[in-house]
Amino acid sequence: MTRTSTNREAVAYLDGLSALSRRGFSTLQAAREAILQVVTEQLATSSSFFSVIRQESGKFEVIAAHNESDICNVEVGTVAHLSPQFPVLIDGEDGPTPLVKENLYCDPTIATLSTMAALPNTGCYIGVPIVLSDGALFGALSTVDPEPCQMSLTQAKLLVVLARLLATQVEREQELIERKWAEVELSRALRALHMANEQREYLNRMQSDFVSIVNHEFRTTLTAIQGFSELMRDEDFSFQEVKEYASDINVDARRLSRMINQLLDLDQMKSGQVQLHLEQIDLNEIIIAVVQRIHPTVPEHQIRLQLDEHLPLLAGDYDRLSQVVTNLLNNAIKYSPEGGEILLSSYVESVCVQVCVQDSGVGIPAHALDQVFEMHAWPYKSGSPRYIKGTGLGLPIVRQIVQMHGGRIWAESMPHQGSVFHFTLPVSNEDV
Ligand code: ADP
User: Fold this and answer.
1) Residue 418 CA: which ligand 1 atom is closest?
2) What is the pTM assigned to this prediction?
């Protein structure tokens, strides 16, 4: 292969450049592929490749290659020693100049031998360093052929221009990566800010809920405790009356203690301090265990089970799910003061397991159906009789537990006819 600077070559050189500029590159990869193809075509060589310098080893690694023939095929991943001539070539007067090894077979230098070892069957090597605008050596644009060759001035210029084009594209890509990185950082910071705001809002809400609960319910209950205890201190009551008042005081004190525990439990769950202890759970087993524990204490209610025998196991926290079923069953009992039937059913629905607790009690008016799950809706609840005393915190806790399992809870009801509480849990709750 002999190369001389002719008009034909100049035309081919210009053709090569204008073909490239027409193509335009959207990515560094597109630029690399197009440039390697042009180099191979215009220099009529066998293979061209783009290698980057690995700072840790000081070696060049091929990251893209264009092979026209199999004779001296260059593989991506090939590693070659950095030629000691490259730093000199960077400092050429008009920018980097090509390193030309026209006949490697007659060149016994160590650099040549190492290039030949890394690129077998190579007769000639032409390479231009890729230098970034800060003067750093980034890599090299190289072309090789099995035959010894001579390179014309036009071809040398073409290589230099293309290497510069690659350097520009590399810098653009680096800029893009930096911009993307900045965008990722920004959106991470925004998300953190958003979460901090949500946490603050939650704390504010929790604080005002707490204040309203303390203000209303604690105060009312403490007033009753205070009133009864003063009566007992100041009046002469029969032994039976004293027992009754003491029992009322005891009920109120227990309720206050329950409220404090529930408030703390809900707060810990909502602020992410409670971890679920997941294991393979049979929900039917939980329902049966809860009913066996509670049924003997409520002889005036008939508790019926309608459980799907083929209920799949699911990942859940046994104690927390027992708490959910216990709470719903206790509510069904509490809000059916005249007794009646309570039905607990389970079945599979698509990818979920659904559990329903149905009673025939006092019911909930439509406008309060969603609010009964809200803590901050307290003390406004379902308009249930005042003599049924609760804490208003059971359902918010139940909903929190169900949601932590990736499930959903809702209620249907008709005043004076009864209510049904449904909850679903995903069978495969991978996002828990
Ligand atoms: P508590 O029962 O301790 O007040 P919950 O959070 O468990 O607290 O329930 C919230 C409110 O929802 C109750 O005060 C009651 O008004 C209403 N509620 C819950 N379950 C039922 C039910 N099965 N039937 C009618 N009303 C209910």
Assistant:
1) 24
2) 0.57
